[in-house]
């Protein structure tokens, strides 16, 4: 929205009217609104530059581990023990994360504990934004968000990083399979 651009520039410029000063609209700049420092430090910029130079390789390695998870967990989804990510036809992704949904709370807890006991960091995803402190203070939800809240209780993020060895995916999926096999023979995904 063009009408928000002047305020956005002010916030970007640490709450000052520096842009107006640089364009000659005012003879000096001063603090006029809320703002912050959003500029990247040199060390962070150097790290980003190196990552951008290798973005294709990094993405390729992440995608390889993502697809390995996806293939390895297909049988568990077929049994109804978990739900894998869904990527719509014609869509691409960068393998930012790999998650599973484990609808049964006891099975979810058992998998989380088993992975943790094996030294595998698998975490719940962040809570729904409408229930977070910021969401409660600044946001609003139109009605109940039952699906969002249910998914938040059952979504488990599995480790995934560019340098992750294929054997680590095998360890993670093996723990998940063994744990769910003990608990979920008759469990099925909700319809």
Number of helices: 9
Strand order of the largest sheet: 1-3-2
Task: List low-pLDDT spans.
Answer: none
Beta-strand proportion: 5-15%
Helical fraction equals 40-55%
Using only C-alpha atoms, the radius of gyration works out to 23 Å
Blueprint (SSEs and pairs):
Elements: H1 5-12, H2 18-22, H3 42-53, H4 55-72, H5 74-78, E1 98-101, H6 105-117, E2 123-124, H7 133-138, H8 146-154, E3 155-158, H9 166-183
Antiparallel strand pairs: 1-3, 2-3
Helix pairs in contact: 4-9, 6-9
Brief descriptors of the model:
49% helix, elongated, 2 domains, mainly alpha, 9 helices, 191 residues, three-stranded antiparallel sheet, Aspartate Aminotransferase, domain 1
Protein model, in words:
The chain is mostly helical. The chain has 2 domains: 1-39, no CATH class; 54-183, Alpha-Beta Complex (Aspartate Aminotransferase, domain 1), CATH 3.90.1150. It has 9 helices and 3 strands, in the order αααααβαβααβα. The protein has helices at residues 5-12, 18-22, 42-53, 55-72, 74-78, 105-117, 133-138, 146-154, 166-183; strands at residues 98-101, 123-124, 155-158. A 3-stranded antiparallel beta sheet has the order 1-3-2. The radius of gyration is 23 Å and the shape is elongated.
